[in-house]
Amino acid sequence: MHDSNIILINGYEHISFHQDAVYSGEKMTERSKAYFEWLDRRRSIRMFSDKPVPKAVIENLIRAASTAPSGAHKQPWTFCAISDPEMKSKIRVAAEAEEKESYEHRMSERWKKDLEPLGTDMHKPFLETAPWLIVAFKKVYEIDEAGQKHNNYYVNESVGIACGFLISAIHHAGLVTLTHTPSPMNFLGELLNRPAYEKAFILFPVGYAADEVYVPNIHRKPLEEVSRFYE
Question: How far apart are CA 229 and CA 231, in angstroms?
Fold first, then answer.
């Protein structure tokens, strides 16, 4: 929460900040546990309903993603949202062509073996079925109106954090998604007419789950496998 108090630091305006709430240790433990349990119910979904999702929802999801921290506050991302059926079809055709090449020639046998429990293959019907596709592009650098080049910093880290915010926002809205990364993804920049300094990072189909969906019976690593505490 902010108020109108403004001071100058190094010649730049800074506004005062106050936390929305401060909780007791017990309340923090309760809230953090509830948040974990809520996120733990999130799953990557490959079977979508074609039920429409209002554009206003997608706009809010992108706004939420864009609150992520970024190197030097450069916000080096562009989120392209696609609902046009013709464009989604073009994206599917191009993505499946890359996936076919990957499954048949690029991916190692070990990689394909590791994917078997997930039931993935080169066919990506969700790219047409999901009502929206959101493609996160990273801005390696930017060009201003005068044609001058400006560097961005920690681009992969910044865009990765923003994509994490996006996934959480999608789940919070009662929708589902999947992180889809056909490699290479240059076709997305070409199809969506993005400038050369923008590179596709992750593609997210967004919508409702189909009426009947099955997901792999897999489990997340326990805390002791993903953490170390130094007290």
Answer: 6
